[in-house]
């Protein structure tokens, strides 16, 4: 199942020419992932505050810039869970312009599950199950 998150391009997101500055696509993708995790019923705050404290952190990200987004565009960030391992999750994300459906950016993101001291940790079974359900719904 694909999670969809809308984003409006504001002046602060653009360069002097009114085109979205490249690093802002990472911010857009992060917001979409955060909302997907929230909608799954996972509290990132609780993960941080429980026991040793854990969090998802971006391990790697690959971006393919296809077309520019511009000031005042309404965008849609689509996120799909591709796989889940013992301590990592693979996601595909696409950023599209809503008006015409043009794909602007593709992202491949690997999240690691870590302790606040930076050590890898196993993703808890209940969290794994929520993500696994998202994978099975996608098929």
Shape: elongated
Order of helices and strands: EHHEEEEH
Strand runs, count? 5
Taking the sheet with the most strands, its summary is: 5 strands, antiparallel
Proportion of beta-strand residues = 35-45%
- Provide the spatial order of strands within the biggest beta sheet: 1-3-4-5-2
When the domains are counted, the total is 1
Return the structural class. Answer: alpha+beta
Global mean pLDDT = 94
Beginning-to-end CA distance, first to last residue? 7 Å
| CATH level-3 fold name | Thiol Ester Dehydrase, Chain A
Tell me what the structure shows:
By secondary structure, this protein is α+β, with helices and mostly antiparallel strands. The chain has one domain: Roll (Thiol Ester Dehydrase, Chain A). The protein is built from three helices and five strands; from the N terminus they run E-H-H-E-E-E-E-H. It has a five-stranded antiparallel beta sheet with strand order 1-3-4-5-2. The N and C termini lie close together (7 Å). Keywords: Hydrolase. GO terms for molecular function: fatty acyl-CoA hydrolase activity. Belongs to the 4-hydroxybenzoyl-CoA thioesterase family. Pfam families: 4HBT_2 (PF13279). InterPro entries: 4-hydroxybenzoyl-CoA_TE, HB-CoA_thioesterase_AS, HotDog_dom_sf, Tol-Pal_acyl-CoA_thioesterase, YbgC/YbaW.
């Amino acid at each position: 199942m694909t999670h969809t998150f809308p984003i409006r391009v504001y002046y602060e997101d653009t360069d002097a020419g009114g085109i979205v500055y490249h690093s802002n696509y990472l911010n857009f993708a992060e917001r979409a992932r955060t909302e997907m995790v929230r909608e799954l019923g996972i509290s990132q705050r609780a993960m941080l505050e429980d026991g040793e404290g854990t969090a998802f952190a971006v391990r790697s990200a690959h971006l393919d810039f296809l077309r520019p987004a511009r000031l005042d565009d309404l965008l849609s960030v689509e996120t799909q869970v591709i796989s889940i391992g013992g301590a990592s999750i693979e996601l595909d994300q696409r950023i599209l312009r809503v008006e015409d459906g043009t794909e602007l950016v593709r992202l491949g993101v690997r999240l690691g599950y870590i302790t606040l001291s930076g050590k890898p940790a196993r993703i808890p079974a209940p969290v794994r199950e929520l993500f696994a359900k998202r994978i099975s719904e996608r098929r």
